[in-house]
Task: inverse folding
């Protein structure tokens, strides 16, 4: 009849149509009788499924973009490394270098960082520094064959930020017990009677105590061109 729902035949092929009709009716009844929160819950189920789809699509997009990005964009530029050099002129464990010396030994220099313009070496305990302005030491009386002189600037670590230069220096060939030369830092030049490895014994006062450090430098034979 027109306007009336055709009855379901559960024994025949109308079973599927009847099941879908029952589901629609049940959903309509739930929406009508349940509180508004239930309706929101039903709608949220559909929105939750949509949200999950959006999240999955976003993840796929991120992976795709990351895979296509140039590997150069992820690289970090390394800071340039300044090479540090060592030089001949030290002996018996003393090494000359052009690395930046400790701050307390830099007073009077206008240089900054490495390479340092004057080769230098640490003494024992790293409490003294010898700056070898003449690059090498040569035996004999000055001037040397190129017209230059032996010149070393000695600095000791003291109680204040800048180093202490009024040190007493005793020089002797390595292994000998008695000093051959005794001088102060003033001028920094010395004449060596013979070549070989020389030990320089530095003494000064700091922290209300006597301080001692040794530095070993090579002295070339007389007549050697630096």
Result:
């Amino acid at each position: 009849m027109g306007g009336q729902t055709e009855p379901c035949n559960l024994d025949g092929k109308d079973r599927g149509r009847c099941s879908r009709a029952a589901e629609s009716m049940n959903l309509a009844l739930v929406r009508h009788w349940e509180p508004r929160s239930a309706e929101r819950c039903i709608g949220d189920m559909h929105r939750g499924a949509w949200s999950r789809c959006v999240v999955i699509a976003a993840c796929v997009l991120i992976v795709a973009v990351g895979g296509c990005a140039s590997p150069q964009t992820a690289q970090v530029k390394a800071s340039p490394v300044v090479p540090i050099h060592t030089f001949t002129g030290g002996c018996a464990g003393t090494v000359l270098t052009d690395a930046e010396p400790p701050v307390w030994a830099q007073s009077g220099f206008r240089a900054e960082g490495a390479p340092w313009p004057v080769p230098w070496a640490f003494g024992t305990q790293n409490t003294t520094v010898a700056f070898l302005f003449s690059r090498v030491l040569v035996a004999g009386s000055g001037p040397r064959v190129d017209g230059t002189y032996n010149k070393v600037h000695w600095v000791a670590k003291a109680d204040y930020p800048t180093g202490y230069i009024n040190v007493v220096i005793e020089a002797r060939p390595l292994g000998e017990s008695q000093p051959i030369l005794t001088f102060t830092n003033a001028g920094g030049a010395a004449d060596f009677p013979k070549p070989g490895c020389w030990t320089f014994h530095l003494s000064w006062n700091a922290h209300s105590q006597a301080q001692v450090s040794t530095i070993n430098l090579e002295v070339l034979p007389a007549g050697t061109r630096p």
Notes: The radius of gyration is 44 Å.
